[in-house]
Design goal:
Blueprint (H helix, E strand, L loop, with lengths): L1 H19 L1 H37 L5 E5 L12 H5 L9 H7 L3 E7 L2 E7 L2 E11 L3 H4 L4 E4 L4 H6 L3 E4 L1 H8 L8 E4 L2 E9 L14 E5 H4 L12 E6 L5 H15 L11 E3 L1 H44 L1 H9 L4 H37 L8 H27 L3 H6 L2
Parallel strand pairs: 4-9, 6-8
Antiparallel strand pairs: 1-10, 1-11, 2-10, 3-4, 3-7, 5-8, 6-9, 7-8
């Protein structure tokens, strides 16, 4: 009870000191607010960016392997780029042989993308992504359909002129999302819309279903050759209980057999998976975390020096008052606690202002762009804890010097 009474009285002294010197308090708050704003905003931006990228990467599928010409991340080592360049692109004719020669693959699909103009009467959308896919694409790639449906197996195998379109395509051509059954023109052919993708926005790994038109690959075959398509890929989803590494070994053996590669010849294809990107992200965000501490640390340091300076001034101004308190029986720890509370309270107030500014910043970023920036509970607690620590560190030496004053000499001070 005595401790809580001392704490209450010390807090009252601290509040009174802060309210009497309003200008000094505001200037002190400004320094610590900027410090907390800087360090927490850096971590908030990094955390939001990491969350967005990892969610985008997760959409690629943790149990999916992509058979492509180029490896993700450059393949590592000193492997010359021109060897990658000379590799053939995966082709549609490899799809069925690969399915027959693998035992660990549940679903296998072929896809490639081209940019072209999509038209409806006088309206058009340029640089839309036309994505011809085989039927199993839906079972491997995660996407939501807001209206309509996916291709039936008959539509996929017969090459029916049907398509699913992104929400931006729908809005650009028709001004509405309710367009199932309408006909659009692409690649010189009329296509009937059977579905509309749910609006998702562009992911941080470059995937944007909002400007995508999905068509059966057999329909695309009636308009163009499916061989040597730049960026073509095969995607394989493993059976339940099968490790990705086991599926990769299975795919590697099957692809080498299909392409008739001799044992001494290097692979003419790359097997890419999400773990390659995830490993790179771990290293990247580790560096960004260190950079965040480095940038924010300087701001916090400057704010801490400002608080310490203000507290020394406060001790000097109230030396006479400290002497009177000690002569009336105030203990040294009471004086120490009084000034420490003033320092901590000052830093917490500054920290809360800084957090408030960061919250306004996140609202502004979300309203001005598609980037989902959010102030997490962890970062809020981090900001408050840092504020308390800075208050204790910055205020300890001034508070300790005040608690060690001689009462007689302190009363005589002007």
């Amino acid at each position: 009870m005595i401790f809580f009474r001392i704490f209450k009285e010390s807090l009252q002294f601290a509040v009174h000191a802060l309210s009497v010197n309003v200008l000094r308090t505001v200037l002190s708050l400004l320094g610590i607010s900027i410090g907390i704003f800087t360090i927490v905003s850096v971590f908030t931006a990094v955390d939001s960016l990491e969350k967005g990228i990892r969610n985008s990467v997760a959409s690629l599928g943790s149990d999916v392997v992509y058979v492509q010409k180029w490896p993700w991340g450059g393949g590592g080592g000193e492997y010359p780029w021109w060897k990658y360049f000379q590799r053939p692109e995966p082709s549609y004719k490899e799809l069925e042989p690969l399915r027959k020669r693998t035992s660990t693959v549940e679903y296998l699909a072929f896809a490639f993308g081209i940019n072209n103009t999509v038209k409806y009467r006088e309206n058009s959308v340029e640089n839309a992504t036309i994505l011809p896919v085989s039927h199993a694409y839906q079972a491997i790639w995660n996407f939501d359909i807001a209206q309509g449906r996916y291709f039936t197996e008959l539509e996929s195998s017969s090459g029916s002129p049907v398509a699913l379109v992104g929400s931006d395509i729908a809005q650009g051509l028709f001004g509405t999302d309710s367009i199932v059954g309408q006909e659009i023109k692409l690649l010189g052919r009329k296509v009937r819309i059977i579905g509309v993708f749910a609006k998702q926005g562009r992911s941080l790994v470059g995937v944007d279903t909002d400007v995508t038109v999905l068509i059966p690959v057999m329909f695309a075959r009636t308009m163009m050759s499916l061989e040597n398509k730049n960026g073509a890929f095969l995607m394989a989803k493993s059976k339940e209980g099968v490790e990705v590494e086991a599926m990769k070994d299975d795919l590697r053996g099957a692809m080498r057999s299909i392409r008739r590669l001799k044992p001494t010849v290097d692979d003419s294809f790359a097997l890419n998976e999400v773990s390659v990107i995830s490993s790179g992200l771990d290293a990247l965000f580790g560096v960004l975390g260190v950079a965040g501490w480095f940038i924010g640390g300087f701001s916090i340091l400057v704010g801490g020096f400002g608080i310490a300076n203000i507290m020394f001034v406060s001790v000097r101004e109230r030396t006479n008052q400290i002497g009177i308190q000690m002569s009336l029986g105030a203990k040294s720890y009471f004086i120490l606690l009084q000034f420490l509370l003033e320092s901590v309270l000052l830093c917490i107030m500054g920290g809360l202002i800084g957090l408030g500014l960061i919250y306004l910043l996140t609202l502004g970023v979300r309203s001005a762009s598609d980037f989902e920036m959010a102030l997490s509970l962890n970062n809020i607690l981090f900001g408050i804890v840092i504020s308390v620590i800075i208050g204790l560190v910055s205020g300890f030496i001034p508070a300790y010097s005040a608690s060690r004053l001689d009462p007689v000499e302190a009363i005589r001070a002007n």
